[in-house]
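[Help] Beginner question about ligand-bound structures

Sorry if this is basic. My supervisor gave me a protein sequence and a SMILES string for zinc ion and asked me to "get the holo structure". I don't really know what that means in practice or what format the answer should be in. Inputs are pasted below exactly as I got them.
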Amino acid sequence: MTRHLTLGSAALLVPIFIVFAAQSKPRPPVKVFISVDMEGISGIVHGDQTTPGTPEYASARKWMAQDVNAAVEGALAAGAAEVLVNDSHGSMRNIDPDDLHPQAILISGSPKPLSMMQGIDATFAACLFIGYHAKAGTEDAILDHTISGSVVRAVRVNGLELPELGINAAIAGYYGVPVVLVSGDTAVCRQAEEILGPEIVAVAVKEAYGRLAAKLVPMAEAREKIRMGVKRALEKRNAVKPFRLAAPYSFELAYHISAQADLGAMLLPQVKRLDARTLAFTANDYLEGFRMLRALISLAPAR
Ligand SMILES: [Zn+2]
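Answer (accepted):
No worries, everyone starts somewhere. Holo just means with the ligand present. The predicted complex, written as structure tokens, is below.
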């Protein structure tokens, strides 16, 4: 009985192996995830341009779509089969779906569980950050802030102060996805290289004088730089490692003023108050830590 079964199983295994080998040959389609913020978009130098309801916003949201479309074109040129674009600024309804490249898929609106990283998962080959900006407290950086300009002075994870690009790259890293390109001003490009390493392609579309003025790369040239940068970054994506910090994750959130730390310290027993303006907590899972960070920012009154 045993011998008979063994022979039967072996006979079955051969065709199964052949079928499996044939199916595993074609490589899976390359999926690219784009998170797009607004402060680092080509042409933008002021908060009036990134705020709905102002006369300048209508132009700025078009510029945002055009920077993203350049990135989508670069991704398609590098062989991407699917490009997912997550609108990641303010209301997250900045890109008019009519303005987006017809081959890209848009995630629009807010709030979302993963905020600027909504839509990312382990099926993506690479992640791009378009229109990103430097962390709060950076000199010569257009509209520098971290998550919330009126609430957050600094975010540190495992002792390392992170701009949004670092906080979000660790979410991509959670899923094993590398961030291969960042676009924005020269300051955010510098921070991207410092945190994510020299292999990242950093595309500077402006150089700031202070917080509210910059020398702009001509718009058509800026978009061409993004298009070519994305293509190059995706072609060498295997050289870039996913960004991962070591667990357990120790988070610190420094607010601008002490009143902003009060509710978090009063309501959440797992939170420690390090000083009047700083709360701390630990998470074993990075996404849980990220959710707690957002909750603590949401509990704080604006300055
Ligand atoms: Zn923004």
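A couple of things worth pointing out: The two ends are 79 Å apart (CA to CA). Residues 1-22 have pLDDT under 50 and may be disordered. Feel free to follow up in the thread.
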